[in-house]
Amino acid sequence: MSIYLKQIEQLVALQRVDSEVLQLNTELASAPQEIQSLEEHYQNLSQELEQLAEKTTFLHEQEKRLSQEIENDTLKIKKSKNKLMMVSNTKEYHAMMREMDNLEKANRLREEERITLVEELTRQQASQSELAEQAEILRAELATKQANLQARVQKTEQRLNVLDQARRNAGKSVPPPVLGRYEFIRSRLAAPVIVHVEGGICGGCHISIPPQSYNELQKGQQILSCPNCQRLIYWSEHFTPANNE
After folding, report:
1. Tens of pLDDT along 105-155?
2. Cα gap 182→15, rounded to integer Å
3. pTM for this one?
4. With contact defined as beta carbons under 8 Å apart, do 201 and 208 qualify?
5. Can you list the domains of the chain with their CATH numbers?
6. What separation in angstroms does the CA of 48 have from each of 45, 60, 141?
């Protein structure tokens, strides 16, 4: 294999390494975001649960207060009925009857309010139970993904170390000026950096290269760039399809 072809081969290998490194770094960056999204969701559910707990506590206290008031007034009514038999005049009798009527009316209103409170309390407790179940499922999912994330990060970092060594090895066979051109293009253009040319068409920008450049490319004597997109190019016939990027 000529020096030119060896350099092309190493640049293609370098590009494969860089593509995998880019993919792995993207995964490393996105994985914590997924965890963060789950954590935020879990925190939101926890806050909703706290709010529901406060609401159910308030409703329960209100129901307890109404029940106590109903019980107290019921006792007053009972005592008033017992005293009613001992009333000595009509005026006092009617006064006690009005008082009992007012107490009974107040109790009916309280009972209606208490029933409404109990119904609302039942609904809130059902919502609280459902939300608590969702939060528990999410908590378990979060714990699992956090554990998986640690394993994924460790595995990815190990792979990146391997790729870093492969990248250094691939760059050894490429002259510094050519490697510099590769790095310069990679910093300014989206991948790929080095592409094949087939039928006079650049595999990067898909535009025809000038015939003279195409003829020079086929000679395989120096590494050329596409005049249109500036990517490094090589003739597809210099490599089998299995070796193309």
Report:
1. 999 999 999 999 999 999 999 999 999 999 999 999 888 888 888 888 888
2. 9
3. 0.55
4. yes
5. 19-172 (1.10.287.1490), 176-243 (no CATH)
6. 5, 18, 19
